[in-house]
Amino acid sequence: MVVIDVFQQHYQVNHLRLLQLPHLNKPSKFLLTRFQNSNNFSSISRRKPQTRFKLLKVKAMSLFSPNPVLNDITSTVITSGVALFCLQFWGEIAKRRIIKDQIFIRKCVHINIGLVFMLMWPLFSFRPQAAYLAALVPGVNIIRMLVLGLGLMKDESMVMSMTRSGDYRELLKGPLYYASTATLVSAVYWRTSPIAIAIICNLCAGDGLADIMGRRFGKKKLPHNRNKSYAGSIAMAIAGFLASVGYMHFFSQFGFIKESPSLVLGFLIVSLATTVVESLPISTEIDDNLTVPLTAALVGSLVL
User: Fold this and answer.
1) What is the C-alpha radius of gyration for the chain, rounded to an integer number of angstroms?
2) Which of 12, 24, 108, 114 is nearest to 65 (CA)?
3) How far apart are CA 175 and CA 117, in angstroms?
4) How much is the pTM?
5) CA atoms of 195 and 251, how far apart (whole Å)
6) Phi/psi at 193 (nearest 5 deg)?
7) Pseudo-torsion of CA 109, 114, 116, 118, nearest 10°?
8) Closest CA to 198 of 89, 294, 65, 80
9) SS3 assignment for the chain
10) What is the pLDDT along the chain (304 residues), one digit of tens a residue?
11) Whole-angstrom distance, CA of residue 15 vs CA of residue 34
């Protein structure tokens, strides 16, 4: 009963805080409706066990619900630690030559980092500043890319896991665009926007898997770009779309967005659009880490 009483107090406090927050990244109407329709914890506790379990899952992601500032600081530290672990893990794989295919390792980093970063978003509170604290995690990597890319500091494992040729100056292109995209998406769109999901999922899952599948099964090239293949483009469209739908469902469990057929259709359109742009020669000349997120943001703003 003590646990239930504490949970009830936390729920009531957060209920009032959520309904009072004026913020660009404020909780969605769907989330507000969920809290308005839940009069108190007692009524919720009388519902089906499945319903209570879903609410417990939402609350479990809040580390320090009575203190949102401490919650966000702790969440930032945890997210940074997870991101650093992922980078160091793939860096050691590359450095020790456990996997000799450096391009494959680079793409694994490409797929892994952004998706894991977005997976940590529910840890943060609904404070306006939470989005910016989360953005600090990839934001720090912008500084790292600049320092390493300019040759001011050396990190062999980082360079080997994030570049094609092993040239540290390459960090100033694709990897820098990648970190900048994750930072801006977090600060500008955050977790209540499906555009954020579309950008990260198509950049990470879509573009990352496109290269892997294209190299392995891409014998048949596209007529308008001999550097791209049908296998790679198909893999990109499917992976970007499925990842987007998966994160839509994941975020809907916390009330950040609401699942709908129109949203699924919008994700499909964005994935197809980014696939087409990624297949064009301009994406090779500039960098698909730049063209893909820009396309996702532009098309997403129209259809999502």
Assistant:
1) 21
2) 12
3) 15
4) 0.78
5) 13
6) -110, 125
7) 180
8) 294
9) CHHHHHHHHHHHHHHHHHHHCCCCCCCCHHHHHHHHCCCCHHHHHCCCHHHHHHHHHHHHCCCCCCCHHHHHHHHHHHHHHHHHHHHHHHHHHHHCCCCCCHHHHHHHHHHHHHHHHHHCHHHCCCCHHHHHHHHHHHHHHHHHHHHHHCCCCCCHHHHHHHCCCCCHHHHHCHHHHHHHHHHHHHHHHCCCCHHHHHHHHHHHHHHHHHHHHHHHHCCCEECCEEEEEHHHHHHHHHHHHHHHHHHHHHHHCCCCCCCCHHHHHHHHHHHHHHHHHHHCHHHHHCCHHHHHHHHHHHHHHHHC
10) 433 343 344 434 444 444 444 444 455 555 555 444 444 433 333 344 344 334 434 444 555 567 888 899 999 999 999 998 988 888 788 778 888 787 888 888 889 999 999 999 999 998 889 999 999 999 998 998 898 888 888 877 677 767 766 777 888 888 899 999 999 999 999 999 999 999 999 999 999 999 999 989 988 999 998 889 999 999 999 999 999 999 999 999 999 999 999 999 999 999 999 999 999 988 877 888 999 999 999 999 999 9
11) 10
Q: What are the beta bridge partners of residue 229?
A: 221
- Closest by Cα among 239, 256, 237 to 248: 256
- Tokens 């916390």 — which residue? 254
For residue 10 the two structure tokens come to 């936390």
Q: Which residue type is seen at 191?
A: R
Question: Quick one: tokens of 186?
Answer: 């977090």
Question: Which residues touch 99 (CB under 8 Å, ≥6 apart)?
Answer: 93, 105
pLDDT digits (tens, 9 = 90+) for 263-300: 999 999 999 999 999 999 888 778 889 999 999 999 99
